[in-house]
């Protein structure tokens, strides 16, 4: 049962519904999840001649895709100096190249298919209220990685900044209009949650409440992969929530903006509506009154606007801040995964679609070693690993003594988010509404029902 408020995208687009799986079927590839990553992967595999079935637990685009701010950008925070420091310049150049190619591919596909999705080229800007030096360092690292960037102290924002970096030739769009067009070409079954995936002799068997799907290859594009073993993704990432207000009649911004400080805000215009985001937190450790804090900021910076909507989003955060795209594990050669997109799911979904299509079709890619789920960079992960271990360990220990409100994923004790009126897992980010119905995985069951899909 989904209770998330309607986003600006769902208010203006309604993708036609699909039937659930009509019974047991077979295909070359089965994809779990009909968000942007799953749909794009299905599209390119279909273009390569594969027979593809997509299984979606709810509705097309109803997960993280509908909650995005829809920035298509290779500006991913202070990522380039981090990659250079811990992994080297070659990795940074590969990361930049993969994301820049993704932006160009969106433009090519949208033009070729005449998709009317409000696609607009613009700059993406990182700004700081405190530290110009770190932005100059990031600009230098981005340039060395092959991305044009320019430092400035001038922005369109309603407050002064210490500095800003502009990344040119980035883009923004309406994600559901885009998804509606691309998904119309594909075989997608909605209201068909995948309960288990098992390896058989020459194929994979995906069980659902409506029948089984047999496929040679399976792609987990369901945001957070639900199998515990193999893969061990619960050791590699956690989830983070963020909050967004839609402000009507705001001054239009030509570019997109993101503050680098913990309290930094995100800005992006959609027509005469401004999307103002911020005050995020690890799922299960809620911030006090995030919407009220955003409303206060809106009142200070845009006093003549009206709040016309609000919603939240959830992102998988990897410990070294690199996405996990490729073979699920060495033990499952026909399982693939795309997860850990941080807050950059639009661009990374396109990166994932091409990487997975190449791999399933037997083609190698220079980007595979960078994004493989098997990668582990201890120096880059050390701080996040320590924090994640503490939070997960605490949640698991508390879960041992909790008679109820335990996450069915691994048994961590759930916490209550009063702002969203949801139960949240501080270990791995599963969410449930006040009645105990599953909203976000990796959990697969409701809190109080032995079979949540009755």
What are the SSEs and their pairings?
Layout (H helix, E strand, L loop, with lengths): L7 H5 L12 E8 L3 H12 L4 E4 L15 E2 L6 H9 L1 H24 L7 E9 L3 H14 L3 E4 L10 E10 L2 H9 L4 E2 L6 E4 L4 E5 L2 E10 L16 E12 L7 E4 L6 E5 L2 E10 L7 H12 L4 E13 L5 E6 L2 E8 L5 H16 L7 H4 L6 H24 L13 E3 L4 E3 L6 E3 L4 E3 L14
Parallel strand pairs: 1-2, 1-10, 2-7, 4-12, 10-17
Antiparallel strand pairs: 3-6, 4-6, 5-6, 8-9, 9-10, 11-14, 11-15, 12-13, 13-14, 16-17, 18-19, 19-20, 20-21
Helix pairs in contact: 2-6, 2-8, 3-4, 3-5, 4-5, 4-8
Summary keywords:
9-stranded mixed sheet; about 450 residues; 8-stranded mixed sheet; disordered C terminus; single chain; alpha+beta
* Class based on secondary structure composition and strand pairing: alpha+beta
Strand content: 25-35%
Q: State the helicity in percent bands.
A: 25-40%
Radius of gyration: 21 Å
Largest sheet: 9 strands, mixed
Shape estimate: globular
In round numbers, the mean pLDDT is: 90
The rounded distance between the terminal residues' Cα atoms is 12 Å
List low-pLDDT spans: 450-454
Number of strands: 21
Number of helical regions: 10
Structure characterization notes:
This protein has 454 residues and is an alpha+beta fold. The chain is 28% helix and 28% strand. Strands 3, 4, 5, 6, 11, 12, 13, 14 and 15 form a 9-stranded mixed sheet that branches. β19 and β20 form a beta hairpin. α2 runs parallel beside α6 and α4 crosses α8. It is globular. The two termini are 12 Å apart. The C terminus is likely disordered.
């Amino acid at each position: 049962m989904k209770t998330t408020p309607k986003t600006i995208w769902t208010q203006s687009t309604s993708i036609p519904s699909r039937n659930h799986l009509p019974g047991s079927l077979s295909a070359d590839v089965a994809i779990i999840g009909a968000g942007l990553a799953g749909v794009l992967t299905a599209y390119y595999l279909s273009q390569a001649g594969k027979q593809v079935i997509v299984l979606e637990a709810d509705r097309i685009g109803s997960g993280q895709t509908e909650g995005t701010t829809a920035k298509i950008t290779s500006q991913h925070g202070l990522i380039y100096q981090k990659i250079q420091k811990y992994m080297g310049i070659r990795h940074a150049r590969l990361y930049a190249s993969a994301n820049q190619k993704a932006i160009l591919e969106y433009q090519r596909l949208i033009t070729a298919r005449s998709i009317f999705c409000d696609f607009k080229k613009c700059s993406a800007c990182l700004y700081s209220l405190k530290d110009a030096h770190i932005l100059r360092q990031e600009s230098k690292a981005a340039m060395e990685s092959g991305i044009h960037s320019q430092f400035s102290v001038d922005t369109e924002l309603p407050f002064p900044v210490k500095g800003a970096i502009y990344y040119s030739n980035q883009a923004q769009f309406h994600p559901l209009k885009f998804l509606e067009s691309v998904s119309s070409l594909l075989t997608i079954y909605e209201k068909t949650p995948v309960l288990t995936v098992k390896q058989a002799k020459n194929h994979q068997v995906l069980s659902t409440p409506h029948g089984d799907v047999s496929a040679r290859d399976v792609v987990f594009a369901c945001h957070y992969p639900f199998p515990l073993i193999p893969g061990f993704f619960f050791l590699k990432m956690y989830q983070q929530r963020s909050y967004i207000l839609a402000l009507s009649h705001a001054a239009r911004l030509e570019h997109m903006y993101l503050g680098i400080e913990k309290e930094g805000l995100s800005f992006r215009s959609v027509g005469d509506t401004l999307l103002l985001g911020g005050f995020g937190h690890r799922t299960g450790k809620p911030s006090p009154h995030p919407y009220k804090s955003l409303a206060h900021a809106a009142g200070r910076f845009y006093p003549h606007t009206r709040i016309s909507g609000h919603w939240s989003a959830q992102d998988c955060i990897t410990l070294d801040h690199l996405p996990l795209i490729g073979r699920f594990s060495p033990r499952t050669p026909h399982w693939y995964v795309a997860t850990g997109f941080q807050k950059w799911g639009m661009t990374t979904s396109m990166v994932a679609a091409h990487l997975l299509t190449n791999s399933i079709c037997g083609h190698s890619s220079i980007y595979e070693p960078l994004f493989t789920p098997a990668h582990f960079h201890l120096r880059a992960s050390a701080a996040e690993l320590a924090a994640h271990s503490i939070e997960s360990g605490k949640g698991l220990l508390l879960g041992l003594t909790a008679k109820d409100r335990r996450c069915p994923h691994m048994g961590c004790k759930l916490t209550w988010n009063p702002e969203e009126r949801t139960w949240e897992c501080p270990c791995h980010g599963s969410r449930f509404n006040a009645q105990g119905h599953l909203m976000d995985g990796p959990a697969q069951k409701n809190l109080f029902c032995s079979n949540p899909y009755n």
